[in-house]
Amino acid sequence: MSPAPGPPVPRPAAWRVELPHTTAAVPIARALVRSALTEIEGAERAAADSDTAELLTAELVANAVEHTPGDGPIELVVELFPATGGCQIEVHDRRPAGPGELIGPGPVAPVDPWQEHGRGLLLIRALSSDCGHRPTAHGKAVWFTLPALPAVPTQRRRGAGRDS
Q1: What's the whole-model pTM score?
Q2: Which SUPFAM superfamilies match (predicted)?
């Protein structure tokens, strides 16, 4: 007789959406990520910090729009990890070259506070729990992961449970 199987291991929930190769993709991606992280289980049980996820997603999508040829869509992949919590978000584009300084900082140079570009990958490195890129059949995927939000204990109301 074989041992009884354990409880099923929950599979990650994942969404894969094609976005237009225009700046309009940025707010669309932010809204999709917000929905995936909050509406699925409710804002009080979100898989990860949706504000951070939206910011980092916007950076990846904006980079894909600005630095890749516009001959095809950008693909957004959102994956939630039910067993451990957290999420991984990927942006796929058609340019095979890696994204500059995603894995580690380049040579130390003074930051020009008036410069409009150059901080997105720094934000991704600083705010994600992990990040990277990998080749795909049609270009590359740039990704980051965020941990699960810590459980917030519910506060008991003053006087709750006391007799009057």
Answers
A1: 0.76
A2: ATPase domain of HSP90 chaperone/DNA topoisomerase II/histidine kinase (SSF55874)
